[in-house]
Structure of CUB_2 domain-containing protein:
Amino acid sequence: MPDLPFMLFGSDNVSKIAFTEAPCVFIASALHSGFPRITFRPENLEGSFGHTVNASSFVDTVVFTSSVEGPVTAHFGAFCFPKDTSYLATEFGDYSQYNSSSPEWRSTILYFMPRTSVEGPCKGRGTHKLGGNVFIVFNALQTITASANSACPAVVLAPTNVPAFYYTTSTCSIIQASVNSSENIDVLTVQNGVLPLKNTYLFTFTHSATQDFLRDAILLVTTSEKWTQNDLQFSYGSPYYGSGNCGLEINVKLPPDEKNVSGSFDTNPYGGGQVYYTLYLPSYVYTLTEFQFLGEDFGCMTLDMVYHSPNIKWSGSLQFANSFTLANVERIEFKYQRRHRYYDCALNGALTIYYNFRVLDLSCETESGLRQNRQRMEP
């Protein structure tokens, strides 16, 4: 297991966890069939066991008001283990009837963090003031206010299986967050203890901004010693793409007086099922859009692509090169699909796609140069 903090899903097959310092656990669950049987038995370095703790003894059933379909029943609670805890023997319940495309697969999140943080700089902060500065999202559209400082980042947990649109339940995790903050906020992925990440940095919020992404749990980190006031609005993925699938739509906007804009989007390293990414680009007469992939492993996944320009629609399933360029594209769609079981590929076939959109200034382009560009733009 990595150092604290980290998270586990209820569906992770973990029987024992080792710690370098005493932990607290926060549990958020949207498993509608009833709260799963989760137990912990602490052990110290000398091999002495403490009393078995049943999560039902500290996890409360709470009711949230949903913007989609009325009241939502969920489960949330926290518990801090003895200060000499070095190991936890665990039982997370039976998930054998589900697979990685099921809404229930990531419907229970267990977040572990240092007890010293919960009882120290983060004391009394977060949802229900349980400490740890841990917040939960149990709604297809939800706004929270999460303060943070350099000693106490804010944590947001977003289990799946929450109410989504058209009276469905969400297989997707968070796909979009808007923030209004007095300081820049770094957003990090909370790594899974079974499948740790080499790099947890996701992006930086600059004051008032909106960002599209796919994650089950995130950290909001700031270098400010003062408490920053961060108003965040979260929304879950769309179920319109069919059962077990997610959709993420990204509208690229060109800043005023600019002819170039760059960005990126990536798959959820802990997500499941198919994901459809649609990139909408500004319409100009002559444009170039460059794409570059990072972390591609086509032994773990397939990637289908459809792109639309004023006169062309192209589609196909390709083993893409590391980069390619398209001319005058207005919309491009990627369909990401796992090829193997959830745990069988490193980082689950995670993929980051970078793009650079550029409006061409024809007065600076030669006719031969344009011909060369057009020749290399087709995939």
Notes: The CA atoms of residues 54 and 113 lie 19 Å apart. The chain has two domains: 6-236, 246-377. The first helix runs from residue 115 to 118.
